[in-house]
Amino acid sequence: MANSYLEHWAGFATGNTVPDNLQRLFLAFGTSLNPQYIRSAVLGYGLSRRIMVANPSLDKNVIMAFLIVLAACDQYRQFFPTFWPAVLAGTPEQTEDNWAAVRLYMRHTPAIKPAKNTVFFMPPNVFKGQEVPLMCTTEAWHIQTTWSVEDFLRFLRVVRPSAASLRALLDFANILVRTRQAGAPVLGHPPVGQLENNQMFMVPFLTAETRAFAFTEGPLPSPVPPADDDADEPVDYGNSDDEDARMEVDPRGTPGPQAGPSSGA
After folding, report:
1. Mean pLDDT for the chain?
2. DSSP the chain
3. In a domain? residue 254
4. Exposed end of the chain (fewer CB within 10 Å): N or C?
5. 14 lies in some domain
6. Is residue 261 in a domain?
């Protein structure tokens, strides 16, 4: 498995398939893309593959949903430059990059019942009833989740990605959202109605205007079903040093992209 940016591109050059998401982004923006952003996103793609290897029984759509909620959480409250480094600094004795713990995502009981999905995509309101370019480069998807911010952060503290890994995962997740086609399922999420199957909204999601009620702290508009009156007890995700949440560390280590925020077209 590739362990660096150059190893990934060497693999692409010698026959490995370039991820569809990167191909779609390049078709829309070409050489105007920020090289640092693409470098970080490619490393994030490599980390997503590591997460799959660490969780062989986990459906890949669950991992994609995790990354999309991660992006929504960053849009809601930025992880960088201070928040996530401070979280890591507060518990330096705990291990980082506990990728096997991503399976705990499935312990999440949606606060919205009887929703079976954890991610909902909605088109920008400005385009309701209007003709939309298939590669729309002026608007971003709206995302709504069945998580609360507090519950997702409890889960993320167990996974405990390093600052460099989190930056790379966020940049790859940003591309996942930007190149998400309306007809593609995400953890059972149905196609977005009244849009072509290959419709995309390609404005950078992480820096798009935060949408109210992306998480479950407030009233939840359609298409999410209303919540029941009964509240569930918080799920115990354990902590990053629980033996059940650990995995063997690849002896080559985790790829190390720059920890600073990336930006890109």
Report:
1. 78
2. ---SHHHHHHHHHTTPPPPHHHHHHHHHHGGGS-HHHHHHHHHHHHHHHHHHHH-TTS-HHHHHHHHHHHHHHHHHS--TTTHHHHHHHH-TTS-S--GGGGGGGGG---SSTT---SEEEE--GGGTTS---SEESS-B-EEEES--HHHHHHHHHHH---HHHHHHHHHHHHHHHHT--TT--BTTBPPPTTS-TT-EEBS-STTSPPPTTSSTTS---TTSPPPPSSPPPPP----TT-GGG--PPPTT-------SPP---
3. no
4. N
5. no
6. no
